[in-house]
Amino acid sequence: MNPTENEQDLAVIDKLHLLKELRSRNIQLERVKQKIKKEFEAKENEDKYLSQYKEELELLQQEKMAHVEELRLIHADINTLEATIKQAEQEKTKSFDSAKKLHQEYVPLKAKVDHIRDILGLERTSELSEEDHRITKT
């Protein structure tokens, strides 16, 4: 072998090594490209899931706010009813107190009327409890 043939052989061997390295790098490049595609598909799927999760979260928040509003209305109704009950109790007490005062005025007045009727020989006036069964002697 002469030096030029040897150089040519070395050049061919160098090219073969480069082709081997190129093949190895191409295989590696294809694997990385496939992984990139796979990861991108996974990312797109996660985007879809994320979008669905956010929609569901929004619906749940709306439902929560509807319940909060419903509870607020219930509390408002309770407060209104409690105020109405308190006012009714006050009116009841006021009416009862007024009835007691009027009864105190009624008793001596009735006694005078009955006394005058007795003098005149007339029948006594009926008792208040006889006219209205809700009123009892106290």
Can you put this structure into words, describing what you see?
The termini are far apart. This protein has 138 residues and is mainly α. 88% of the residues lie in helices and 0% in strands.
Average pLDDT figure:
92
Largest sheet: none
Oligomer state equals: single chain
Structural class of the helix and strand makeup?
A: mainly alpha
- Rough shape? rod-shaped
CA(first)-CA(last) distance? 146 Å
Number of helices, where a helix is a run of at least 4 consecutive DSSP H or I residues:
2
* Percentage of residues in strands: under 5%
C-alpha Rg (nearest Å): 53 Å
SSE run? HH
The parts where pLDDT drops under 50 for at least 5 residues are: none
**Number of beta strands:** 0
Q: How helix-rich are the residues, as a percent range?
A: over 70%
Short description:
This protein has about 140 residues and is mostly helical. It has 2 helices and no strands.
Question: Characteristics of this structure?
Answer:
single chain; 138 residues; mainly alpha; 2 helices; rod-shaped
Spell out the blueprint of helices and strands:
Blueprint: H1 3-120, H2 128-131
